Amino acid sequence: MDAQTPELAPNSLPKVAAGAPSAVSGWRGERGTPSLADMFASVGTARKGPFWRKLLAFLGPGYLVAVGYMDPGNWATSLAGGSKFGYALLSVALLSNAMAIILQSLCTRLGVGAGRDLAQACRDSFPRWVSLPLWLSAELAITATDLAEVIGTAIGLNLLFHIPLGIGVILTAADVFLILALQAFGFRWIEAFVVTMLGVIAACFAVQIAFAHPDWGAVLGGFVPTREILANREMLYLALGILGATVMPHNLYLHSGLVQTRFIGEGREEKREAIKLATIDSSIALCLALTINASILILAAATFHRAGQTDIAELDQAHAFLAPLLGSTLAPTLFAIALLCCGLNSTITATLSGQIVMEGFLNWRIAPWLRRLVTRLIAIVPAVVVTLLAGEKATGRLLILSQVVLSLQLPLAVVPLVMFTSSRRKMGPFVAPRWLSGLAIATAALIIALNAKLVWDFWAGGF
Fold first, then answer.
1. DSSP state of 86
2. Of 123, 92, 117, which Cα lies nearest the Cα of 238?
3. Which of 1, 80, 95, 173 has the most CB within a 10 Å radius?
4. How many whole angstroms separate alpha carbon 112 and alpha carbon 128?
5. How far apart are CA 438 and CA 443, in angstroms?
6. Cα–Cα dist 92/71, whole Å
7. How far from chain centre, in Å, is Cα 138?
8. What is the reported pLDDT for 281?
9. Are 134 and 274 in contact, with CB atoms under 8 Å apart?
């Protein structure tokens, strides 16, 4: 089934009922027209047949979400963490991934059960004096994400084709045409492109890890948390960078919107099954994201940290040192290919999340290409300024800073998500079970506590 299927007549989309009283207790208004309306319910699902066939129809959105957990900003934090502290921060990557699985499962529940993405839910729950600051916060998070993608993609172009970084930053604006071309063929083509790029990235790192010969005993030990992470300010800073690069605020808006691309019936059991299948999809995809994130950190620990290169934070630095340390000219090429694929993938998810945030919060729709150019220009300007004024060596620090900004924005997306999905008045029969709400509340509390410590250390004369 595609977007042109006869079953999806125009009147099948929910309509906007501005100012009308809500038919569902707990919401301030009726559910409006969905974000990404041209993709709404455009992917068919199997209502009968074996479980694997039903699951296949739901596989896809989770991988677009997983892209956000391995974007170029994550590379900078993982490289810096692995080169500085060895395998110790693997525990943070594991904890962050567990948090991501919990929070993304709530996103599927909100998108399917309430029929709203997180931006719409905020608009339909809070007065404008609350929802507008939340919108601005979400836009700031997307800008920080886009900044990381701009720099990462430009560095990938520079490493592979020797294009100057400033020119590469400007060229990244052209990715809007890639997204428009994929959208013309349907949402499944976007998913196929993303999954293909993820496969390339995974293959590149598998080969590089094989070259690096890490200490697998130390790798396993790195997944055990240590108190030093809280005691060491520099380690905490990088840990929060990894957290910001893993649990990303724009992904919460993105996933709650993407699950609505599946054609789901209005029956209670159909929605329950859709929530289960979409949660399995995202959990599998996030396990792949953890594998790739851990591979980046393991590669840095097994090469740079072991060789005494403990100050690697720049992507081009990592590229330059890989060949002499691993004794292979193939390794840096694979590193650059994976970085470029990562940047291309991330542009798609940033575009979609930006569209969902704007349409959901403001009910304001503009052409996707225009939206993309606006957000990309916002990211390009600081990237060009930093590159021209501070030089290419400052890009790594800018990448890490962008991830910490994302981490600081997380509570403003996480807290509303937990509030909505734990409210029976809003979710009805699809309210999150108490154990899941409890884990989500603990996750939100930990995120807020870590951010509070980061701010305190900063003002106390930290970094």
1. T
2. 92
3. 80
4. 25
5. 9
6. 17
7. 13
8. 93
9. no
Query: Coil, helix or strand for 29?
Result: coil
Which residue pairs from 373-376 have beta carbons closer than 8 angstroms and sit at least 24 positions apart in sequence? 373/173, 373/176, 375/142, 375/143, 375/146, 375/350, 375/351, 376/146, 376/150, 376/172, 376/173, 376/175, 376/176
Q: How far is CA 11 from CA 14, 37, 61, in A?
A: 8, 12, 25
Burial of 53 (0-12, 13-18, 19+ CB in 10 A): exposed
What are φ and ψ of residue 262, in 5° steps? -85, 145
459, burial (CB in 10 Å: exposed 0-12, middle 13-18, buried 19+) = exposed
DSSP state of 225: -
Distance between the two ends of the chain, CA-based, in angstroms?
53
Please tell me the predicted confidence (pLDDT) of residue 378: 65
Closest Cα to residue 111, out of 265, 257, 254? 257
Q: Who's near 303: CB < 8 A, 6+ residues apart?
A: 212, 309, 321, 322, 325, 326
Residue 364: partners with Cβ closer than 8 Å, 6 or more residues away? 358
- According to DSSP, the residues that pair with 43 across neighbouring strands are 262
Instruction: Determine the residue type at 105.
Output: S
Angle at CA of residue 312, ends 218 and 347, nearest 5° = 100
How much is the pLDDT for 3?
Answer: 38
- Residue carrying structure tokens 């948390």: 225
CA distance 110 to 330: 45
Dist. CA 407–CA 137, nearest whole Å: 12
Rounded Cα distance between 272 and 195, Å, is 26
CB atoms within 10 A of CB 463: 10
* Cβ(375)–Cβ(144) below 8 Å: no
Using left for φ > 0, alpha for ψ between -120 and 50, and beta otherwise, residue 213 falls in: left
In order along the chain (463 residues), what is the average pLDDT of each group of 10 residues? 39 43 62 78 78 86 85 75 89 90 94 92 91 88 76 82 80 71 79 90 88 89 86 80 72 91 85 93 91 88 83 70 73 85 81 84 74 65 65 62 73 92 92 93 84 67 52
* pLDDT (tens digit per residue) in 116-170: 999 999 999 999 999 899 998 888 888 777 777 777 788 888 888 888 877 887 7
**Is 43 in a helix, a strand, or coil?**
strand
